[in-house]
Fold:
Amino acid sequence: MTIVERLPETKSGIGVVSAIAVGAWVGAYAINERMWDWLMYDRIGLNPDTRSVGALHFFLYDTTKIVLLLTGIIFVAG
Structure:
């Protein structure tokens, strides 16, 4: 049985799945910057005041944000 076959076919079931997906998307978008701060500065221990670390943090944070925004746009438009 595939994932598509497991999805509910009723309107209320689709609404529940959609609400869970929207909640997951909003949650991922909300914790994006804090997640990269925690990973780079607290876990790995990089110095946030250096330019190279700041550039890497910006790249990772912004790339994740753009992917999330594009995903949201695709699902809203589709």
